[in-house]
Amino acid sequence: MNDGGGMILAFRLARRELRGGARGLRIAVLCLALGVGAIAGVGSATRSINAELAAEARTLLGGDVEIALRHRAIDDAQRGFLTSAGALSEATEMRAMAHSDGRHLLVELKAVDDLYPLHGTVRLEPEMALSQALGFENGTAGAVVESGVLVRLGLRLGDRMRVGEETFAVRAVLIHEPDRAAASFTLGPRVLIGQNSLGKTELVQPGSLVENRYRIRFAPGIDPASWIETLKAKFPDAGWRIRDLADAAPRIKDLVARLGLYLTLVGLASLLVGGVGVANAIKTYLDRRTETIATLRCLGASARLVFSTYLLQVLALASVGIAAGLAVGAALPLVLAPLIGEFLPVALRFGIHLQPLALAGSYGLLTAILFALWPLSRTRHVAPSLLFRALAAPAPSRRDAAAIAGIAALAVLLTILAIASTADRKLALWFVGGVVISFLAFRLAGFGLEHLARAAAHRFYVSNGHPTLRLALTNLSRPGAPTPSVVLSLGIGLTVLTTVVMIEANLARQVKNDMPAHAPAFFFIDIQPSQVEAFETAVRSVPGVLGIDRVPHLRGRISKIAGIPADQAAIAPEAQWVTRSDRGVTYAARPPAGAKIVAGEWWPEDYQGPPLLSFDADAAKGMGVGVGDMLTINVLGREIDARIANLRRIEWSTLGVNFTIILSPGVLESAPQTHIASVTTTREAEDAVEAVIADRFSNISAVRVKAAIETVASILDHIATALRLATAVTLSVGLLVLAAATAAGQEKRIYDSVILKVLGAQRIDVLKTYAFEFAVIGLATAMLACLLGTGAAFILITEAMHTEWTFEPGAALAPLGIGLLVTLTFGFVGCWRALTQPAARLLRAP
Amino acid sequence: MNDTSDATIKDGPMVELGGVHLTLSSAAGPVNILRGVDLVIRRRERFGIVGPSGSGKSTLLMVAAGLERPNAGSVHIDGADLGTLDEDRLARFRRDRVGIVFQSFHLMATMTAVENVAIPLELAGRNDAFARAGEMLGAVGLAERALHYPGQLSGGEQQRVALARAFIAAPRLLLADEPTGNLDQTTGALVIDLMFALQAKYGSTLILISHDPDLVQHCDRIAHIRDGRIERIEDGQRSDA
User: Fold this and answer.
1) Taking the model in full, what pTM does it have?
2) Closest alpha carbon to A445 in A34, A819, A29
């Protein structure tokens, strides 16, 4: 049996159908374009950044390989091995105070040698060679500073400033530092000096917080990977951190990856909300073509041919939406470049990245078909007899097993794609679970609302009162009412909004608002043991100082966990930060003030036995150790085996001096060390305390707690802005779907309002009807969104971010307000149009 | 070879309904539309059906087209037992053997006249669909209007396009439901003359529903239907028989 050439005929029929335009499907196209655009844009931007980071890896790393050591320099044997590989450049980084005319500023100091930079160029203003800028002139060493130093110390080029015990002439402003991305979190502007003048500052003391970086430009013929292996084998206990080109900018790469992941998931949520719009639009489109479908069936077209014909139309229009989205997404890095340029160590350039575009396109296509399949499957059940009988008996609502199987298969495919294309599988699974729960919850809520409205309307009928309210309730529950799709589309958008706002509020609170009433004003670092007494005396001499908390400070790395080398031990992801690099280590006879010991006991004050250790309870849990287990700590190359005596629950948010690792007395006293102190003062005393220490102790650096918190808050603020923008896309798609759904019922609304007016209803009555109808939808939807969004935020904060959760009522109320505002606005706009329709014309119409 | 022709009995009646009952559900409850219809229509016969609104005329037509399945009774068309055919085989049966003309024309608004006419042959996979459609449009006097869309045609012209579409596959059975119902008298007469001429030319059996007694008088026989039953069948005054 011939079915007319199958797909070719379906294609021909689809093409003819589309000639009539796709007015009803424009919303579907727009929804897809926005969702795909968001995902493609985030993917393209992420890929562009990564491509630039990879292209500039050598410059960002400062060499072909970097070896970093904290506190100490390499020894002669190590230096000999490193120089045999090629050109070796050495840089020393630390935090220090710069002084000028009674002004003091915490700066990020970097001392570089003549070979710096091995790759890339340092740009200065005025233009000059770095060696010239840092060299000695009339016996004075030169320094290059970021413009912030000039502003805050009130300097001009040529002026002098003191760093430690050395005075420097500021010769140029640092415009571009090629290896800047390699720097850690910064608390002050950069100051570059020559390696040969670092010694004169006398800042490098035993135990000082100094990072020595050794960069190598390999001689020809050296294979980096095998050289690194040889290096590790030759100096297994060096305790250094080795980074190669693949690891050139790990922090920015991690941040981009994580932010990209969250933004992609928000984009995917937009796409799924858009899917609701696709389903609604296709249903409306097909409803208008019932007669055409019935005619085709009468003329002998098979159900499959009709289905294929409309599937092809949907695919054609979906392609338009997806193509538009991909074009927008591909161009997004271009738009973003000027906005995010200042946060990146590399310039963002335009480039077509096929993989993220293919992924976004696949998401778009799968979503379009997934949501189109159910309305499309109804074409199989259009009765040709409709053509003979205007009011044929309604087609029985058949369960279409093929459609259900198809939808299930597509949903599984979409889930697999979401999980497979995401680096964080667990998060992707949470997302999929959240989406499924949200869709089900809002679908049920929509139907539940209809049901309740129907029951309530019936009561009003019985009591024969409140006609406007009764009409509103009837509107909510009449056949074909848009209630379920409005609830679903608005609800998902508001859920994402609640999630983002709630997370943002939690993080902001932790950074800003959680500052305890008596948070310290300063952390002073690099206090030499010989300076301790004088330091405390100096601080206490300032009126307004409320307290000093000072402890010895060393850096140490956990090298073994219960005898197993740390790099081979199984450690939960949330605890891996403890072993990733050096941690602050201290020792104490008494537990820190306010310490919460949750397991074991603190050692006696006069304890002199084998080394004991007090450990962070959360870290212990993640590492699978407890009281009685042995940890090996490498402090300055010395391995110390210590038994865990107790576990402490550390409240990092108190901003007190806290240490993951505290050793018992008698172990570290003789090791080179510095002291660290937190000082609590009145607000008025802050400047005086900083001045008195800066004037007397040139090597001690003062970190202002508020400035540090503001830096963190500003970073969070930028991340929040990106998330808010992505959420705006989700909400916009939701509004589009909402607009289309309310517009679909507008004809009925206009007719109702005309009849009401004819029957004597005043405008205010009609207005009340619509206000009530939309307020009920908005409120119910927003409340459910609030619940689901709060749940999602709770899971993300406790499970993915591992931070403390607090319910923020303000964050929950915002989406509630937006939900009501949006639905009432749509309701009033619709109502206004309905009220302005001339009744006579409508009533005369056939 | 198509899969509905096996059962064809070339010399038997074209339509054979036996004890056909049809009940449809409605919001107000089930409605008995056909209550035991027995009917035999010969090949090439022009058979008229008249009756008041709601008497079951259109439903009878739908049953004959395989568009509605009776709750009881048998339907044999051109020798094929429609009760044994599934939805898609019924669709192919209509494509190959049945032509339908509606009161409201039911042309595809997005297709030109020639495309509308070609559909049945396209559905049958015929390569000459458009050539034949052009000829059919010529036969109904609309060759010049081949590329016009339905919205650009008058009601009479639209019904002539619908006639061309109904006859393009040379159907053995033509079902016409009030074909002149939406046309003025003059245009209606023109259309009906054309329909009879095409029916004679292709040797089709015609079942014609109309409210117009003058129109059905041109049939061989006329059935009067009321409340879902055939009250009586009388002879008509077919002039060209």
Assistant:
1) 0.72
2) A819
